[in-house]
Amino acid sequence: MFDKILIANRGEIACRVAATARRLGIRTVAVYSDADARSRHVAACDEAWRLGPAPARESYLRDDAIIEIALRTGAQAIHPGYGFLSENERFARVVAERGLVFIGPPASAIAAMGSKSAAKALMEKAQVPLVPGYHGSEQDPGYLKGQADVIGYPVLIKASSGGGGKGMRIVHKPADFDAMLASCKREAKNAFGDETVLIERYVQRPRHVEIQVFADTQGNFVHLFERDCSVQRRHQKVIEEAPAPGMTPERRRAMGEAAVAAARAVGYVGAGTVEFIAEPDGRFYFMEMNTRLQVEHPVTEMITGQDLVEWQLRVAAGERLPLLQGELQLAGHAIEARVYAENPEKGFLPSTGLLRHMAAPPAVNFTVGASVGASGGEPAGVRIDSGVRQGDTITPFYDPMIAKLITWGRDRDEAIARMGRALADLDVVGPATNIAFLKRLMRAPAFSGADLDTGLIEREREVLLPPAATPSPTVLAIAAAAVLSAEDPSALGASGAGRADPWALRTGWRPNGWQSRPMSFRRGDASYPVTLSYAAHGWSVRAEDETLLLSELSWDPDTRRLAGLVGDTAFAVRTVLEGETLHLFGPDGPQQLGYAPPLAHAGDDAAEGGSLVAPMPGKVVALLCAQGDRVSRGQPLLVMEAMKMEHTISAPADGEVTGLPFALGDQVDEGAQLIGFAPA
């Protein structure tokens, strides 16, 4: 086994590798960019070395600097994590040439699977089922459109060197092909340095099912069953679960054998994932092979009782696979939810900013010795893997994942129920998050009933992305109590007389009579007035033409838990008043209300009339209009690139372009005016 390894990555995967290495007595070296100098993964390792500025090209993609640091620190091996250099054939080759061990497959296997087109040709020879399509080298736009016409619409344009949902477009009709192809090529070139694409028939209502494979240097190959990753947005996974709902033993065996055949065909070693598209009738087709550990590997660990990072380290050190196929067991059901800094209501645009408050649910990290497959016990019901902490910043430079929340149950229903409770216990204040969306997803009949396919989120949009609800009188009463707790927690026990000196209270107490206090809360553009009246026993709240009594209030400053009665109904929430936003975290998920103290000046968030603003920091990669152009509602005007994804800015109405403040290639800040616009 190794004495010291370097982890050539960041975030939760670097923390995860460091934790497993420590358990095995292996010292670890972290590398970091300027944006990550005080990050969690740096603290998790035994030593840390700076790579360079924040942009990945100047830090985490500097393969020469990473190898040099490994040599200088005496590390014997490099773990690439996932993303960045994990599937870089040149990096794997140079690591080996410099006398180090690459904790991953051989460079030849990465090269074989690195091009989706070449990989599909190889899989065809290995008799692995393929989706009908064009995987050739001819990239003339006219030729590609001709191939799409032959395949038949809808078709999927996919970056040949792509992954993570980047460089993918679904084209439903011929008229849209040219624009979609150009956008796909731009995104692919920016993300992967290669604009080569392939064209495939777009399978209707497909499920995304992948098989975890492992191989050692002694020629042993196994699969560790399947994961269903069908719930996606923007072609990126949101929920992963294992095993796949509805999977029969016969189909599991067939898919597992196909995945192992794919791995054998390229002389694979280490951890890999073979991804398939499955049709409703059970037919499945090879999609791609990810030559690395996947973000969703924890669900496989939870149902097998195996630490896949430990497997990676042992295989890289020349050991045999810890278990062979017949020794692997599958038990229970596991679900992983990716908690992102993003805004689902705005097309899942990534969000950035300081994590001002972050509290996780009670969780016990996965321990192999307490899991099925080892001692026969059950794994922890809740696990959380995160690379950030309260006080960290989600930047525009990297993936905006905050955490992976994983739950295990004896069956799928129990795993879903635990996930719902865990999401309700996860509090994040700062960037926008998808936590409320994930909680709605757990309750959605299509998900709970396992009616899964990659279009589930769009198909269930009305359920998953409903308009902002009007806060109920009960919520407004609790919000008023939360303001009281923030202003003077000592006054909650009684209003007027009680545990605190009444003359020191900030509650508006009067020795004889009532004192009413107006409050106003906001949600979106609507305001909700509340009148709070103080009396000898409790508080009377008038909201939305209802009068409710608040009583028996208590506040715990350590947990931020506010509890009490609204009328005869007990409640318990966690509250954070941050700036002019009140956050309530309770069983139904997070809620936000705007609130400004009476003497405060609320910020004016309105953009300049007639302008279009940047929804997030990014770069202008395409200008599709000119000053003076007359445009129609919905017409694309400008394309931004942020976090290696493209976002199209369209005309909000018929009108005229009156100005273009930015040029092609300019970096823009969130909220920057991108286009001057005059409605017709």
Keywords:
alpha+beta, Rossmann fold, 5 domains, D-amino Acid Aminotransferase, Chain A, domain 1, 17 helices, 680 residues, Dna Ligase, domain 1
Give a brief rundown of this model.
This protein has 680 residues and is an alpha+beta fold.
Explain this structure to me?
The structure is a single chain. This protein has 680 residues and is of the alpha+beta class. The protein folds into five domains: 4-103, 3-Layer(aba) Sandwich (Rossmann fold); 132-201, Dna Ligase, domain 1 (2-Layer Sandwich), CATH 3.30.1490.20; 207-464, ATP-grasp fold, B domain (D-amino Acid Aminotransferase, Chain A, domain 1, 2-Layer Sandwich), CATH 3.30.470; 473-595, Glycoprotein, Type 4 Pilin, CATH 3.30.700.30; 611-679, OB fold (Dihydrolipoamide Acetyltransferase, E2P) (Beta Barrel). 24% of the residues lie in helices and 33% in strands. The chain contains 17 helices and 39 strands. An eight-stranded antiparallel sheet has the order 14-13-10-11-12-15-22-20, with helices on both faces. The protein is globular, with a radius of gyration of 27 Å. 47% of the residues are buried. The model is unreliable at 365-376, 494-499 and 601-610 (pLDDT under 50).
